[in-house]
Amino acid sequence: MRTTSNPAFKNLPSGGGSANFDYGRGGVGVAPGQAPTAAPPQAERPMTIDDVVTKTATTLAIALGTGTATFLVGGQAAMGLALPAMLIGLVLALAVIFKKKVSPGLVIAYSAVQGVFLGGISWAFASMFSPAIVMQAIVGTMGVFAAMLVVYKTGAIRVTPKLTKWIIGAMAGVAVLMVVNLLMSMFGMPLGIRDGGPLAIGFSLLCIGIAAFSFLLDFDAADKAIHQGVPAKFAWYVAFGLMVTLVWLYLEILRLLSYLQSD
């Protein structure tokens, strides 16, 4: 099983699926008078970087399309779609993670629904603050993604077991804080990590940093899958995993920008 902060990447097989040919069987080199055995099944084509790029671009384009459409609808309709889309997206995400077989349809559906959710949330932030905040969050998200890709490719920060454990531990800690804050908010005693104050700004910066570093684990898992000859269909898992991290990063950047504009 792969060690990564992203649950989607745990579905990637750890061994290659394209190099297990048995050329000692079949119609070649059989004994005289012996009927040739059936040809071995063809192995699946191994994943390439082009597969990852194509599938990731597809999911992003779908999310951008549904998100833009929802944002343009605006008003109560957009905000009313956000919560159902979030819940449906959560169900689809769990289905993708726990389903035994690769399902491109589920990944595509998740991307479309997440686009609706992000479109509704973005419209709410734009109406409360400024329409520019949405474009700033998009540019910031893409900037962080590109920067971490450069960091990974250049080897400026290497993905080591120690770094992996640190990132996974940090994500677990952040998740616990979010849950505790939600529960305390129900009783009117929030922790102050989402109220726009200095503590909230620091918490959002922490989340952005953890999300950025988790890209390194995502890139490393995808890179290893490519080198191990994992079947091409698993590129959908890679695209899904990157989408999950991008959504989290975008929401945190959007929230941080709202805090800064409130000051």
TrEMBL record:
Domain of life: Bacteria
Coiled coil: none
Keywords tagged on the record: Membrane, Transmembrane, Transmembrane helix
InterPro entries to which the protein is assigned, alphabetical: BaxI_1-like (IPR010539)
Membrane-crossing residue ranges in chain numbering: 52-73, 79-98, 105-126, 132-151, 163-187, 199-222, 234-251
Protein name: Putative YccA/Bax inhibitor family protein
Naturally occurring in which organism (per UniProt): Halosaccharopolyspora lacisalsi
